Input
Amino acid sequence: MHRCLEVSELVGLVCSHLQGPRQLEFAFEVVRPKRGDLAVLARTSTVFSSHALRLIWESVTLKNLLSCLPPGSFRLRMTGEGYFTKYIMQLLRPLQNSDFDRVRVYAPHVKHLFSDPEFADLSSVFPSASSWLSQNMLPNLRSLHWMHGENSNFQYIHCFLAPQLTAIHIPHTSLAALTLLSSLALRCPQLTDVLFFPRGAPDLRSLAVPAVSACVRGLHGIKSLTADILNQAALKHLSRLPSLRHLRLGELPSVLPTPDDEVPFPSLQTLYLSSEIASPSRFLEWADKIPLVDFLAECPAFSTANEVHRLFSAAAGGIAHSSLTEFAFDNEFGSLNDASDGADYLIRSSSLRRLFCFANLTAVSVLSAVGIDLDDATVTDMARSWRHIERLEFQSYYGTPAPRATLQCLAAFSKYCPHLTKLAIAFDATVIPTAQGDLSLESLKSLDVESSPIATAPPVAHFIARIFPSLTDITTLIDSLDGDAEWEADVGPQTLQYDRHWKDVAAICAPIK
Output
């Protein structure tokens, strides 16, 4: 055996390389090992077996674990295909203690367990297997993702609740889940990462709010919380926790806690609020220089210009100016009744200026009905204020009507934003500016021009290629429609004409570069 293989750390690095990157599987992030490669490695030598087996079994589904039962004890059927593949496990005989011998070999490696009835139907196995599963079979389990809702299998979550559990995700609201919450903090006192019913359930909300809030108040070391809505007492409890780093909520209580001498949320870094725009505005007006790194407000309907101005102003007052690096405001799609409505939803440049105080921003995203009313002066001041920006995206559903910013504004990014790699902005490209000397931005790779007006392609292409010499991708509002003929008919012939000109710009830029 080579001497390098006597070094445990090197063997571990080899196995980790075969494990592959972290990926999003279903509703949570897990490491999906390349189990085939690791299994071969585990059988190759005892030197690799312990490391490979640990990675293979570290993050698994409950179906994976129960598939270690003897072949003659169950039958596994598969329905659907691709993303909709579903496994159905059926017992062929009653289970006995010896059937779990192989399960016990691999169970100590399991740290992250996932069970979803949409992926694997284990209804036939649960009643017989539960007595053995509940005997501390997973002594090193740290996180549990239990996707069962109203079905009778939710009760078997009790088999996996243990004092060492640090993360639990229960996305579906049910009466059984609400009953569980009353004792969860006592049974799992080390919980730091909790997700409860983020999508909510209107028919159970009156029961869910006090149940979730009472459970949260019993957690004193929590670092990450996702929930639909909390009451005032629970929000007050969270605001005093020095451990809380990440908070994601739907609605806020109608009355926020009374401010006291303590600084609220002293360590909060990530805040996601998914609700009507008034809720995040109220929260940030109530807050006082929270040291957020990442802020996102998702609103279920189009927000008026006045509502957006209130939110951006509240952000400037409620978030520490030096800490914020990512800011996002997203409107879900809505409808505008007539052209006059567009003016009510066009975000004012004075509103955007409220965010210029955040000098360390690296990513800004604003998705709204009809975009932002920018001019060249505002864009220049923005570029000067956000010198660390890497991704800047101002996108809209209907396109920005008659943008006042011109093609000239792009030069500001080449002058002040050396790290910018992705830009989405609407501007008027019908007037061609003079060349900007040797100013160029090598880092920019992607430019989304929305539905920017353009009269002719060649001079625009030459200007853009000069200031963005490494640009590889130019897209428009039409590209975001994914070829939907009905949507393209709605945007109108003028927007389609602009799209054709911008496609010409992209074609010309490529050989120039």
Observations:
- The longest strand covers residues 74-79.
- The CA atoms of residues 173 and 201 lie 6 Å apart.
